[in-house]
Amino acid sequence: MSTLSILHLTDTHLLAKGLHSSVVDPGEALLRALRSLVPVDALDLLVISGDISDDGSLESYRRVQELASDYAAHRGAQVLYAMGNHDNRPGFWAVLGNGHPGALSEPDGGQLPVYGSSRIGGFRLLTLDTSIPGRTHGFLDEGQLDWLAEELSSPAEAGTLLVLHHPPIEPVTPLHDGIELQNPEDLMEVLRGSDVRLILSGHYHHALGDSLILGDQQIPVLVAPGVVNVNDVLAPEGHERALRTSGAQLVTLFAAPASAVAARVRHLPLQLTEVESVFDFSPEEVAEISGRIAAQPGELEVDLGSDV
Ligand SMILES: [Fe+2]
């Protein structure tokens, strides 16, 4: 496997009952998002990078698992889940196990942090638990950082994908200032010299791309917009505004040898909103209009208004 094709969703915030922010049915939002994503066919991995549940209920985890497994199974893809600050460790363990493909549920997981490692092709998948029960900000404890260092001590054939809910990069919107990952430098220390080629995160509820620069090494960090809502980064200064819409990311991670300092990463942001079409040309109409445009090379402006 020379590439890993990933669909990245996050912040589904499912509830056993009721509405999110008093207006959004999270189950409906997820269902609508997955319906919009039906055309995505070539897929190896569906990642849901945390805040899977809003109330920690078993029903909410079961519903996400049901929808995500069904979507992935139709595409021959695996599913990978990570813990978010709204998640509940006992509920997560009981339904999703450690969140890795093929993981068994662990009803006795209790308040143990949820993290793990698995393989898909030559790629290694790692998840960390940045949540602190009852708190909103993120933190990586020493136990997980030690485990991560041990795990990364030998490289994977094609490189490693790391998923953690709180991004190890600075927030953009005011409400997230203070509830970000509190110790990104501890993570960066462990990642230095490792084969981690890409980090996927959620939490900020809007798309954001950045990189960790560790000497010669560069690790892209991609934050996906929320499924339950999307934060408006263009809200007036000081405002935190969420929009009733959903987003996702399609990501291709290319295999890279252990000696590489970076891997190629392609990233396609997806806006999943049901909106009215302004126009919707059929392939035949496109060919016909293209033909007419080609036949008028001198025309800089072509009025398409009469074609629809
Ligand atoms: Fe969230």
From TrEMBL:
Keywords: Hydrolase, Iron, Metal-binding
MF-aspect GO terms: hydrolase activity; metal ion binding
Name recorded for this polypeptide: 3',5'-cyclic AMP phosphodiesterase CpdA
Domain Calcineurin-like phosphoesterase intervals: 5-206
Family: Belongs to the cyclic nucleotide phosphodiesterase class-III family.
Species this chain originates from: Psychromicrobium silvestre
